[in-house]
Amino acid sequence: MFTYIFKRIGLIIPTFIGITLITFLIIQLAPGDPAAMKLQGAGPGGLKSEAMAKTVIAQTRELYGLNEPLYKQYGLWLKRLVTLDFGESFKDHRPVIDKIKETLPITLTLNIISIFIIYLISVPLGIFSALHPRSVIDKITTFALFVLYSLPSFWVASLLIVFLGGADYLNLFPIVGFVSDGASALPWYGWLGNVAWHLVLPVMCLTYGGFAFLSRLSRASVLEVIRQDYIRTARAKGLPRWKVVYKHVLRNAMIPFLTLMGTLLPALLGGSVIIEQIFSIPGMGRLSFESVLMRDYPTIMAIAAIDGVLTLVGILISDILYVVVDPRITFNKLD
Amino acid sequence: MVMNLNADPTILNPILSGDYNAAFVSSFIFETLIEYDNETLLYKPLLAESWDVSGDHKQFTFHLRKGVHWQDGQPFTANDVVYSFNAIMDPKVDAAGSRVSLRDVEKVEAPDDNTVRFTYARPYFRALLVCGTMPIVPKHIFGAAVDFNKDPHNRMPVGTGPYIFKEWKTKQKVVLEKNPKYWGGEAGINSLVFRIIEDSAVAFQELKKGEIDFSEISPIKWERSTDTKVFEEKFNKVQYYLPSFSFIGWNMRRPFFGDKRVRHAMTMMINKKDILAKLLFGHGVIVEGDQYYFGDAYDKSIVSDPFDPEKAAQLLDEAGWTDHDGDGIRDKDGLPFKFDFYSTSSNFATQLGSILREELLKVGVVVNLRPLEFNALIRAVSERDFDAVMMGWALPLDNDTYMVWHSSEGDKGSNFVGFANPEADKILDKVRVEFDRNRRNELFRALQKILHDEQPYTFLFNQATLLAYSKRFTNVKVYKTGVDIKEWKVK
Predict the structure, then answer these.
(1) Do both B255 and B395 map to the same domain?
(2) Which of A35, A90, A281, A306 could cross-link to A61 by cystine, CB 3.0-4.6 Å?
(3) CA dist., res. B290 & res. A191, Å (int)
(4) How many CB atoms neighbour CB A198 within 10 A?
(5) B310/B403 same-domain check
(6) pLDDT higher than threshold 60 for residue A63
(7) Residue A329 CB: number of other CB atoms within 10 A?
(8) For residue A49, what pLDDT is reported?
(9) Which of A304, A222, A317 is closest to A264 using CA atoms?
(10) Which of A44, A56, A162 sits opposite B96 (nearest CB)?
């Protein structure tokens, strides 16, 4: 098993280089030159002619290190990465790592809460539906979840803002930011309450769409297991129903969820651009969207690299967990 | 006073920043040698008390105001101006925007602490403005910096202006407080808080909740959501016009738009009055020229072609674009009249595009809408790879449109439609060295006539800026180009 893990980690490195290399090339191919963009905002000033603008653009490209051949630029980026140096942003010359440190905790909080709520509600709901298939309740929940799933989040967000956080109807929740100004003066529980209060609406928007997928998945896998012979055997030998469900059905039905683990880690970091934008939450989603619009290459690359690593690690963890939970799966043959 | 910005400022150093939000916040902290007068829209002294211009219009000597101090107590001197110029020109400083503006300044000298002299490479009517509005930063703070771009003061600026920087929480807010020792006297409002709220609908709700005192609002909100009693009790609404205009540019290199009759026909197919009323709720003016509509260089007697599909069809017939093969689409020399309409994906652009497509289909012209992300649009335009494009120009006052219309800028410059007119070229050359304002305005009007006749653009609108502000503020004057918060007071 350890040889297997060792091999897998060895494979992660070339995959990671592949991911970042492709990202690097794609952002270079996208229209828009970060140096030329610095000029657009400036507006007409003196006797600006194309020749003059060109000199200045060339100087700016030099400053950003964009005049080097691409392979050199990429090599340099990789070299710096080894020391965890992501370079500095073109936008304001701050170290990219600082920007990520600023936004990451906010996105993490938001996503951990949302994902937790999604699992907490949809998995039991799916199991319940599976144990009562084709009942009225099953039909109603299925229908309701699909209705929720099809509502676009920006629309729901706008409704929530107007009706629950706006000036005209109920003004219950704040609609801007992650925490109130001056909340840092509060004791820790007051601060926490303030954050929670701010997160009610964004978390609502981030969760309702996720129920359908997960509850369907858990419903399907429970139904699959429940039809197996060993379940019938367990019932036949007289085990109570709750024990069969808890001990035999659920444990086996949860295996497909491990596949989701692979996507869970990167999902924790990837912010929702739309929700963060609407609720003015300074998270990773806004950071990555903004750096793409501004062609802020170092920031884009840093985010892509972090996402890439997390996806690869997530997949590895889920593969290893398969072996841990299911004795039928083993790495021995591979060794 | 709390107001909102639609994005975080990039950096609070006027030499390095290029975005509107940074410029807006910086304008309360930093000052330039001269500025525009709100009433007259002419230059007036700011950090310079007066200035002399040499006979050949190449040397500008500014006499600095005495007794001005940086907000940390150090005196402001001519050395700061010279230092700022040298910083802008340093290739290691990320100041592309400022550097391009100042390319033609040969040198800046300080004969003594209170005098600074700019030397311009060639006579130019905007030279005084270019020199006088150069951003100025304190030498004693940046002079010792290892790397100008990374200096921490770029995020906690020190200026000479009426407001002192207090706090910046990235993507949340910037706070300024009034400068009690400001040379021009204390400002009327104690502190300015700029909250970063990207979504305009949220900003509007915050305004109504009383969390914001001052916010721009969209035409549709102005019309539909501000007529309540509660709103009118709390807020005043004003509108004004910044110098800018939107337009559709016709790529004259393309077979469709080489003929001015076709361009006029296109203009006649756009019902500007209707669009203005329906999309902008009347908050704009229809323009037919490249100068500021409310300035003295604009000739209001030149008006846009009225909406007239019959006349348009007739012009297209005359230009040879008729339906030869009977498929319902006009064609000429075997080429069907189908063109790509490039624009950003903003609501206004896409709605206008749809209206245009519908109207043009009625006269047998097919429009393909191509909404693009802004940078992709800029690339298409700078590579001349478009048939028609809808964009806007935000103009400075005393605008020099040489780079937009001169035939020499057709290949690489901002003359992306490929407009070439010897008469216009002559005027544009003359304008640059015409130092008499009245004679210059006459030249601009002559150019406007040519532009109307040639229709390289279908000029659209100068849209109004709509503003709501809390009634607790007094001394609010609405000028042609906006309001000046620096002179406001609180009840």
Answers:
(1) yes
(2) A35
(3) 54
(4) 21
(5) yes
(6) yes
(7) 12
(8) 56
(9) A317
(10) A56
The radius of gyration of chain A from alpha carbons, rounded to an integer in Å, stands at 25
Interface test with A, best of B199, B230, B383, B385 (most A CBs within 10 A): B199
B238 pLDDT above the threshold of 60: yes
B426 token code pair? 């002559």
Residue whose entry in the numeric block shows the structure tokens 């600026």: B157
Strand stretches in B396-488, DSSP E: 457-459, 461-463, 465-470, 473-474, 478-479, 482-483
CA angle B389, B394, B399 (to 5 degrees): 110
- A63 φ, ψ (degrees, to nearest 5): -60, -40
CATH number of the domain at B170, please.
Answer: 3.40.190.10
Same domain? For B427 and B284 the reply is: yes
Residue A50: per-residue pLDDT: 60
Same domain membership, residue B117 and residue B219: no
Q: What total of structural domains would you count in chain B?
A: 3
Q: Which residues contact A1 (CB under 8 A, 6 or more apart)?
A: A323, A331, A332, A335
> Do the beta carbons of residue B203 and residue B218 sit within 8 Å?
no
Portion 32-61 of A in contact with B at CB < 8 A: 32, 35, 37-50, 52-53, 56-57, 59-60
Q: Note whether B480 and B240 are within 8 A (CB).
A: yes
Are the C-beta atoms of residues B28 and B12 closer than 8 Å to each other? Answer: no
In a domain, B315, yes or no: yes
Q: Domain with B131 in it: what CATH number?
A: 3.90.76.10
Which residues are bridge partners to B458 per DSSP? B248
Among partner residues B201, B378, B380, which is closest to A161 by beta-carbon distance? B201
Give the start-end residues of each E strand in B420-475: 457-459, 461-463, 465-470, 473-474
Give the integer Cα–Cα distance in Å for A135 and A215. 16
Residue B241 confidence (pLDDT) above 80: yes
Q: What is the pLDDT of residue A271?
A: 67
pLDDT at A47 over 80: no
Does the interface predicted TM-score (ipTM) exceed 0.85? no
Length of chain A: 335
- Examine the pLDDT at A37 and tell me if it is beyond 90: no
Q: How far is A262 from chain B (nearest CA, A)?
A: 31
pLDDT confidence of residue B450: 95
Q: Tell me how far apart the alpha carbons of residues B485 and B457 are, in angstroms, rounded to a whole number.
A: 36
pLDDT at residue A48 greater than cutoff 80: no
